[in-house]
Amino acid sequence: MSIKLWANSGDSHFVEPPDLFDQNLPKDLAARMPQSVKDPDGEYETVTVDGQSFRRKMPRMDTGGARRSLTADEFLDAKRLEGESLTRGAAGNGWDVQARLADLDGEGIWAELVFPSLGIWSFNIRDPKLAVAGCQTMNDWAMSIQRQSPRIVATASLPLLDVNDTVAEVRRAADLGFKAGFLPVRPPVSRPGWSSDEWDPLWDAFVEVGMVVAFHIGTEPHTPDQRTGVYHTGRGGAVLNYTETTFGGQRAICQMVASGALDTRPDLRVMVSEGGSGWIPFIADRLDEAYRQHSAAVRPRLTRPPGETLYQQVYASFQHDHRSSVIALTAAGYRNTVWGSDYPHFEGTFGHTQKTLHELFDDVPAEESRRIRIGAFQEMFPHVPDPPADGSEPE
Amino acid sequence: MSIKLWANSGDSHFVEPPDLFDQNLPKDLAARMPQSVKDPDGEYETVTVDGQSFRRKMPRMDTGGARRSLTADEFLDAKRLEGESLTRGAAGNGWDVQARLADLDGEGIWAELVFPSLGIWSFNIRDPKLAVAGCQTMNDWAMSIQRQSPRIVATASLPLLDVNDTVAEVRRAADLGFKAGFLPVRPPVSRPGWSSDEWDPLWDAFVEVGMVVAFHIGTEPHTPDQRTGVYHTGRGGAVLNYTETTFGGQRAICQMVASGALDTRPDLRVMVSEGGSGWIPFIADRLDEAYRQHSAAVRPRLTRPPGETLYQQVYASFQHDHRSSVIALTAAGYRNTVWGSDYPHFEGTFGHTQKTLHELFDDVPAEESRRIRIGAFQEMFPHVPDPPADGSEPE
Fold this sequence. Notes:
globular, alpha/beta, homodimer
């Protein structure tokens, strides 16, 4: 039996209590915050947000290649029936911190950067006041979780309809103890893209309070007549739609690099979660080629080649990538590749984390292995304590 | 002085004679084929196609980092004034084959996969008969060029409004001597995406005649109210728009892999030009993760993991990528990475090809260097003769 490897996760999720908004907001506001109602057969859910209604197919997983489909709940039940020690409470409910940590200990996951679940939908809110009230509620709750363990690094939700509100909530979040702010890969539909100078006060605020900008893929806001995350239908649709999600994260990062938002703020750090890390060396090359070969059309001029800024200020997490994301460091010199579990989501490694970590790292030199599993994460969040030594258990 | 390195180019372009359609088509058809009229100040061109009109900003280039902008013509004039031996005729006019080959000899480029220039606009044609007539005219002309040198591998333009027309032109092109057929990264706006089973007869035809499917990035057809290739405006726009072009090529390839079009046709080879090669190991990882983690939703099932199919049947070309596209082979085992010059375009290496080749390959083992510069191209096009030995000139 190989020894237990420990890793920090740059990509994990809370699942908020269903009564979070009812308990903490006036009734008229609570009713307009994101809510999910699942169909009786579990195949679709309907999410309502601020008077809009979105339909979404529920994720499913089969058991090791079999054709039979399982819902998320059925999958977890099947695992329990097989005698595996999944802590259903933690996987299903992010607010039971002790159960969550037991899950993490079992998997060999130490600290986590944790994103909201329902909160992702809050980027579709159209009323600035509702956005502020909703984010404050989510952040107060997330902080109550983070305070229970130094292994949990929560991301602050931010109201994006008025940049003054965004800046105010960044400052409030920093005072509460947040070390990272969560942004969708594309701003709300009424707002300009991340390359716009309208966001400069936000980047200044992140630098001022020393928080990390944390993008999560698959978070594009949209109108109710666009299906969530469905870009491709027909043959190969499921594979294509998941693959497609990386492009939104890459685009957000390119906007921050090409616009000069990072070049002019060398202390600003940006993380993109679940989009993989293996694309970074390639996009660095492509940005540099664009900057040099189309130089006459390039505005603004930058003080460093854009690929260099990407390498220095951007961090990116992957789960399984065995061909690309580790060699991004070992062969292409990109030091900020971060591993992520995506716990408790189905793209993630829950149930096979140790197998995945050994496959990824057994042939990688110790320094590089530790950098990806532990060091790059700690560079962003130096307050997080070291994990147990590989092969040992938490005290 | 370092020795001359030779390379085949997986990405080059013809510039068609301005009177091509007038000379070869009835007047009423010729008038509807793509035509470009430049503004007097050279900043914009207006392209008219089949009753539609598109505005496009002309590419510009400055002289080595200076802020002064030059048009393409001014840039070439400046190079000549500096005493450099550019063959203006070849760079400007693809139909002067001897001048073109003199340029290539000077650069150290041996054989080329050559795409049309104006022909790219033909994907916006809406009349199937016009599409057929236009493609036949372009192909007859391109073949008259290819016949002048075994170093020129022309790509056949294909009418895409009726798949029966597409198949017929693939067969006619193969009979003429074409070894590759040119496709845009997205079909015309009235047609389904490349994952649709409506294209299966086309893939069967490519296998039947033994031709390579050749995608070129930046070829998305669009409606006249969408600006060509302009996805981003404002800060960083030029860098973002060039960077963005790779995603269209990646998406087309993913559609062919995830739909099973390649899995069921193991002899079908696909090339994507100018989109880089460094993304292949990463997208292979992501396709495999999607296929495995979302397996319950995946249709069709494939006989091989999609990443394996991508590695085996897809070829991809890059120009300058010093971080990613060479290590795609040397570190990530992707054998089908192909170098490309993009001659005579501005993203390309014209004027600095030897410098680029030495920077890319001086530290790469001989076998891998030769595979990228020469071997992968010859695997697709085995009729192409070997280049001169490195360090020597053509006989």
